[in-house]
Automatic annotation (TrEMBL):
This is Cytochrome P450. Gene3D superfamilies: Cytochrome P450 (1.10.630.10). It comes from Mycena indigotica. Keywords: Heme, Iron, Membrane, Metal-binding, Monooxygenase, Oxidoreductase, Transmembrane, Transmembrane helix. Pathway: Secondary metabolite biosynthesis. Its cofactor is heme. Pfam families: p450. Signal peptide: none annotated. CDD domains: CYP64-like. Belongs to the cytochrome P450 family. The chain crosses the membrane at residues 27-49. InterPro entries: Cyt_P450 (IPR001128), Cyt_P450_CS (IPR017972), Cyt_P450_E_grp-I (IPR002401), Cyt_P450_sf (IPR036396), Cytochrome_P450_fung (IPR050364).
Length: 525
């Protein structure tokens, strides 16, 4: 499961399901044909009147169609790029109105900070989707929990699992996964992208559940992917009940209720199965230390079912949210090194000076590797893995800069635009780690992990993973272009997918050992 993709589905208002291998049985597909036009008419007319009479300056945006509003303007792919275009036409706030849902697209650091940080008490909720959250039970998953007591409780659990000082306890796990990555890359360099992906999933699952290391096609990885597909389908399947919540009171035999029960059971099974295994191990006294085993011993079984559910859901969020984002960032790192050989060489020189060739780098080396740190900050700026933050919602109407933002507006913040702000970054499209020269401290000097109380709770562990992977790879391998039949280097065009997690499209490259005998550094993996 990817909770980033999963939660990102909150932003998809498309009425056509995007997950094609699952049965297409939304209410749109399974209801007598006369009901849908009738209901749509009711919604549209209600929303038309709801949208009238708002006060304040009009927030600019594409022209809306009568009644339907901006339904056809919704950017289902490449949202970051689309928001860049709108910014040039409409300025830093663009408004769409889709079937009565108000959506604001924000592209300015000042505005996003003003709303998400200074007015965070109002702007930190998530949009409420009846089908996925209420009927399928996904509201308990952290990226979708509303900003309240459960949110704070889950953040507390996350802090216990993900804070930098806790991470240091996980160093041996990271080193082991890192050596497995190097050995797999050495033996099978063509599959480096899959090895990077395996690393992230395996590390997350081991940290959360204490499972043994995973292989590339491990059923656990496949299970996580199944949950992602299912969750995306629940979120983006075009469920009419999301637009007309009164439909949830229809009898339980109607198709969308049946489907919701199926999803709820599946999601519950996927959250509970590994949890149950850990529980057995804890009772048998054989459980290795993990987020789940440590937390399980902290609550009184039977008396705090709600706490148990929160911990279970937190565990699922940690392993689900980390895998595809981390894999996207490490693949972008490989692309950046391929395209910028001089940056790669400089980072390798730094590693050779600090670490030498008798051992692998470790986390303790990080303060002595400022150039490598800057390279990775620049990777996350140049190719933000999550180009648009998970949608926020305001729980109250707010007046801002002469505009009236109605209650329950969906707010989309473009991290892509923040990372390309020409007033902050000279030549923003250029990959230039030196732009961060002089930055002190460990914290990322930009907003790739979001802004305000809903900023990514996995930021530290994500950066630690990326740092270790990059340091290991650069210490042992040279990343260089493939050659065509005429011997000419193939320099790939930079292309990224348009999904909510921004993955570089597959590109050719060669991983060569930097010196003979490098494998002795990871042969015990
Ligand atoms: C390079 C990797 C990653 C990037 C770029 C990233 C970025 C983000 C962003 C932009 C958000 C949305 C913030 C918002 O809504 O305002 C987010 C949320 C989240 N991230 Fe990450 N993330 C990464 C890795 C991870 C990892 C490794 C974990 C878990 C260990 C994680 C767990 C989460 C969770 C649970 C949320 C939801 C937070 C909430 O709703 O309050 N992420 N992330």
């Amino acid at each position: 499961m990817s909770l980033h993709s999963l939660a990102a589905g909150l932003s998809n208002l498309s009425v056509s399901p995007s997950v094609t291998h699952l049965p297409q049985a939304t209410i749109l597909h399974a209801t007598p044909s006369y009901i849908i036009p009738a209901l749509l008419t009711i919604i549209i007319v209600c929303n038309f009147y709801k949208g009238r009479g708002k006060q304040g300056k009009r927030i600019p945006g594409p022209r809306a169609l009568p009644l339907l509003g901006n339904l056809l303007d919704w950017p289902s792919h490449h949202q970051g790029e689309r928001m860049e275009v709108w910014q040039k036409v409409y300025g830093p706030i663009t408004r769409l109105s889709i079937l009565g849902k108000n959506v604001l697209f924000l592209t300015s650091t000042n505005i996003i900070s003003e709303l998400f940080v200074k007015r965070s008490a109002v702007f930190s909720d998530r949009p409420q989707l009846v089908f996925s959250q209420e009927l399928c039970g996904m509201d308990v998953l952290h990226p979708m929990t509303q900003y309240g007591a459960d949110f704070r409780e889950q953040r507390k659990f996350m802090k216990e699992a993900l804070a930098p000082e806790v991470q240091r306890r996980h160093e041996s796990l990271l080193n082991e996964e890192g050596r497995r990555l190097l050995r797999a890359t050495y033996e099978d360099p063509e599959d480096t992208a899959r090895h990077l992906r395996r690393f992230s999933t395996s590390f997350s699952l081991r940290m959360v559940y204490g499972l043994p290391a995973l292989e590339v096609d491990d059923p656990q990885v496949l299970l996580a992917e199944e949950m992602m597909a299912l969750s995306e389908y629940a979120l983006t399947g075009g469920w009419l009940v999301d637009f007309l919540p009164i439909l949830k009171h229809l009898p339980s035999w109607v198709p969308f209720h049946r489907r919701a029960r199926y999803f709820r059971a599946k999601i519950n099974e996927m959250m509970s199965k590994p949890w149950g295994e850990v529980k057995e191990q804890v009772h048998a006294g054989t459980a290795p230390d993990s987020f789940c085993s440590i937390n399980m011993q902290k609550f009184d079984d039977g008396k705090s079912k709600h706490t148990e559910t929160l911990i279970k859901a937190t565990a699922a969020a940690i392993y689900g949210a980390g895998a595809d984002t981390s894999a996207a960032s490490s693949y972008s790192f490989v692309l950046a090194m391929l395209l910028h050989p001089s940056v790669q060489s400089r980072a390798q020189d730094e590693l050779d000076d600090v670490v030498g060739r008798d051992r692998l780098p470790c986390l303790a080396d990080r303060p002595k590797l400022p150039y490598l740190t800057r390279v990775l900050w620049e990777v996350l700026r140049w190719a933000p893995p999550v180009p648009v933050a998970i949608p926020h919602r305001n729980r109250e109407a707010v007046e801002f800069d002469g505009y009236m933002i109605p209650k329950d507006t969906m707010l989309m913040a473009s991290i892509f635009s923040l990372s390309r702000d020409p007033e902050v970054y000279a030549s923003p499209e250029t990959f230039n780690p030196d732009r961060f020269e002089g930055e002190r401290g460990e914290r990322l000097p930009h907003h790739a992990f979001g802004v305000g109380p809903r900023r990514c709770p996995g930021a530290d562990v994500a950066f630690t993973q990326l740092f270790l992977q990059a340091a290991y790879i650069l210490a042992c391998f040279r990343i260089s272009p493939q050659r065509d039949v005429a011997g000419k280097e193939i320099i790939p065009e930079v292309k990224f997918g348009g999904g909510m997690v921004r993955n570089a499209e597959e590109f050719p490259f060669v991983m060569q050992a930097r010196w003979d005998g490098v494998e002795r550094l990871f042969s015990d993996a």
